[in-house]
Amino acid sequence: MRGARWIDHLPLWVALGAAASTGLYDPGELVGMALPLIAAALVELLRWNLGRHQRWLEVGALVFFLADLARGRGVFPVAIHTLFLLAGLRLALPREISHRRQLVLMGFLLLLTAAVSTTSLPFLAWALAWFGAAALALLQQSWEISSSLRRGAFSRPPYGLVPLWLVGALLLGAGFFISLPRLNTGFRPAFLGSTAALAQAGLSDRLDLAGSGPIAPNPEVVLRIAPPPGTDPSRLQGLELLHGVALESLEGDHWIPSKLTPSDAFFVPRRGPGALQAEFLFSPSTHGILALPYGLSGLSPAGLPLRRAEGGSLRWRFPRVRPMPMEVAWNPATAEPLEPQLSPRRLEQLVELGPEQEVVRRWSLRLAPGILPAPELARVLERALRGFRYTLDNPSGKAARPLEDFLERTQAGHCEYFASAMAQMLRARGVPARVVNGYRLGPWIPEGGYFRVSQDQAHSWVEYWDRGRWHLADPTPATAAGASSGRALSTLSRWFDALAYHWDRYIVRFSDQDQQAGFSWIQSRVEGWEWRWKAPPAVPSWGVGLLALAWAAWRTRGLWRPQPAGPGRIRALRPLLARTRHAAPPMAGETARLWLGRLAVLRPERRILLAELADAVEAEAYAGRNSTASTLAKAEAAAWRGWRGPTSR
């Protein structure tokens, strides 16, 4: 077919269109990418044979690569420019099946460079067009191979099937997109079966004791805290509780954030003596709440997409899709939030009780009788509630009045029961109190040098107001800390977690600052290094060097040794020349056809195939037409492998 060779050009041109659709390249760059393809199309149109100039074209491509690299535009643009240049060069030179497959691969690599930089709908159209062009090219190549083995005229490939294949692939991809489980959103199709109907541990911006069953563990990592190198983790104070959101409004059995809570309730805009700093790596979450230490005094870098939300929480302005690091500074000496005065409306809200107020008031007086100052009352209630039993089985979750059942019957539950009970007991005695949801500090991972906080460390505790300051109280038994953090990670799990952290830190987030730090480290080591190697004797050194030079010259003899006139000048015949160099080397002045004729005399059974090879060689070398000379020569060379000529006795 006349247009068959043009199909090889299609994937590269479509890849160029996909790159242009991203908007990343200026017009000058796009013209530079298109020039090699335009030149290759001109060579194809005029039917020029540039095979004899291949070596010089390759040298020119190398010079272009080095010059483009020297411009300092970055490795990524240089790689794209070089791929387009090599693709154009490959299109302009004589092409075998293997070369044509390389062109499809180059087009795919260029499409990938565009895919990583855009998610736009127009790019989807370009991607579908590229897959159609690649399907046409691969279909044409496989059809030519199969047709060459059949007798008769060359038939036309079934190009009409390509659109049907594209539609089928698109429908199949859409089906997988719809049906596969969405692990990050909790969606799971019904036909895949259901998971156990257990609530999972995790942070929430509300608290509801009613209607919940047992709590299942949830090892999903939400935060990693890496102190500066060389810091003793035991000296990193103020991280025992990481606050997320304050719940001040009590509606029945529900604790929810209040709009009256100051937006800067936990922020102390000064560092002062004793300030600490660490890197916090936040994993993506559905609620976007940041868990931060008390006494927070600074976040960096500046300009992070954060917003102040209800309950004094700090949240991402937009949903995150990958882990986000930030430098966090805090001062443990200012851990208790300041609030000099409470407005009447807010004070009324902070002492409001739920429907079980009589039970709460009775238990408050039973556990801490008499009139006590707020700090002492809090200590007594905290100590008394810690005598209850901590469990994730949630035995009071199905009761009509969960908090009453927790106090009167089971005296066992998870942290939300303890925090809710103590906050309401304080309110029943006139002390403003609220529940805070956040995290306990997770285990230290020595293999990675950071603290690992997962959803299993989600926790609720109490803050009560006294004399212009909010004070912390945690009535949950101490065994809860062991239960949450001590689902001990095995050594293998810790290593895998550390590997994931370092991959994100040193590969995904590798920056120019990291690069400069690495070069500085290498420079410091080189400057302090003393050369102590003693040079070997001169004669053995020269001997080894000459042997290495002779070996390199022998291995590259085909590059610098001039090829003999005649068949040796024809690139396609080189495999056959190597096989027959001892039995029938070309003679001086002998043409390719004459030499192949001598081979036919040695092996008469291959006369027809050798004559066909001679026709193909002349068509490629003299008529300027692309042919199958190289393929036929390789097949003939394989037939001469191991052949020994007749010997005389």
Folded structure, characterized:
This protein is an alpha+beta fold and 649 residues long. The protein has 21 helices and 20 strands. Strands 10-13-8-4-18-17 form a 6-stranded antiparallel beta sheet. α4 (75-92) runs antiparallel to α5 and α19 packs antiparallel against α20. The longest helix is centred in the first third of the chain and has 28 residues, at 121-148. The two termini are 54 Å apart.
Mean pLDDT, to the nearest integer, reads: 82
What's the alpha carbon Rg, rounded to whole Å?
38 Å
Helix coverage percent of residues?
40-55%
Counted by DSSP, the helix tally is 21
Biggest sheet character: 6 strands, antiparallel
Q: What is the number of strand segments?
A: 20
Which term fits the overall shape? elongated
What portion of the residues fall into strands of 2 or more residues? 5-15%
Question: Which terms would index this structure?
Answer:
649 residues, alpha+beta, 6-stranded antiparallel beta sheet, 5-stranded antiparallel beta sheet, 45% helix, 13% strand, elongated
Outline of the structure:
The chain has 649 residues and is of the alpha+beta class. Strands 10-13-8-4-18-17 form a six-stranded antiparallel beta sheet. A five-stranded antiparallel beta sheet has the order 9-5-16-19-20.
